[in-house]
Structure formats: C-alpha cells, structure tokens
C-alpha cells in the first residue's frame, strides 16, 4: 500500500506561510503586536515547564486533535507539552483511527533496515514522541505494524521530517489495515 502521494509536502510550510502572510500585519511594517504572536513565531514565549518527555502509549487516550499537524503546538515556539520529534495519526481504510500497533523508524525500507525507534499508536490513533531522532541530518523510513503484527504499511521513500500530519492530511491519510 502506498503511504504518501507526491514528495511535495516539504513545500506545504512555504505555501501556508505565503497564504497567511508569515505574520505580517495590516497595521504597518512593524509586524504583529505581542497580542497577535502565534505559535510558531520565534517571538512566541514557550513556558519551560512544557519541555518534558511526552511519548504515546498503546491503549492510552490522552492525545487529541487527530489528523492535525501536531508540530503546530509541540515545537520550540509552541504551547504543547513536549517538543515532538515525530507525530501523526494512523487510520484504517474505513476512516476510523487505528488503535494499537506501532510506527517504526528504520534506516532502510521494507521494514528491513536497522530499527532507530518504535513508537506505539495510542487509543486515539495517534503516535508521538519527544525522544531524540537524527532528523534532518539522517533520513529515515517509516514502517507501520498492526497490533497483531499481520497488517503492515510503509512509506516507500525516506524522509527528514517527523511531522507526519503536515503531509498526511484528509486527502493522504496514513493507512494501516
């Protein structure tokens, strides 16, 4: 099964930035006021208490915002608990979130490369971790395993980003049978 459509998802942040004006203000050349500073803006002041370990666990249901880009909040200039190194949502072909299983990050495709990290898919279909990953210096392959080990899927090419839902939106969901 093919996971990603095209390899154009690296252009998505630029497109969003261009459409949103990259924080430019209609009020003048000075940019937004402090009240208008949004997550992602380098001027966003993140509470250091949020910089904690945050890793998904099987059957747990504390995650939220299925299908949304987790890195919008869980990043150095965002309000989310933990700075994620990879995160996303896994769906069944029916459209329901997959509960259980794992997302493996490997050095080669086909589930054959060295295992760098395995992240559990939680009870809401989300997977996320703050554990260190070699992105962007090393590209990795994503390989999915169902809870019973019978269902698998993989991304057919490596990536240097763990922001899975940035590209895998409603039109290109991550699927696992």
UniProtKB/TrEMBL annotation:
Keywords: Signal. The lineage of its organism: Bacteria, Pseudomonadati, Myxococcota, Polyangia, Polyangiales. Residues 1-18 form the signal peptide. The keyword Signal applies. It comes from Sorangium atrum. This is Cytochrome c domain-containing protein.
């Amino acid at each position: 099964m093919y996971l990603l459509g095209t390899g154009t998802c690296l252009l998505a942040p630029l497109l969003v930035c261009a459409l949103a004006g990259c924080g430019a203000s209609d009020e003048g050349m000075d940019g937004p006021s402090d009240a208008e500073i949004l997550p992602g803006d380098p001027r966003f002041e993140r509470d250091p208490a949020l910089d904690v370990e945050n890793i998904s666990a099987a059957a747990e249901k504390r995650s939220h915002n299925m299908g949304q880009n987790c890195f919008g909040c869980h990043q150095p200039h965002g309000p989310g608990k933990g700075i994620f190194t990879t995160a996303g949502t896994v769906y069944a072909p029916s459209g329901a979130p997959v509960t259980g299983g794992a997302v493996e990050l490997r050095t080669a495709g086909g589930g054959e490369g060295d295992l760098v990290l395995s992240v559990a898919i939680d009870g809401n279909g989300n997977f996320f971790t703050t554990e260190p990953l070699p992105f962007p210096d090393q590209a990795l392959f994503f390989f999915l395993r169902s809870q019973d080990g019978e269902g698998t899927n993989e991304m057919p090419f490596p990536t240097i980003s763990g922001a899975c839902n940035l590209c895998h939106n409603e039109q290109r969901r991550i699927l696992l049978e």
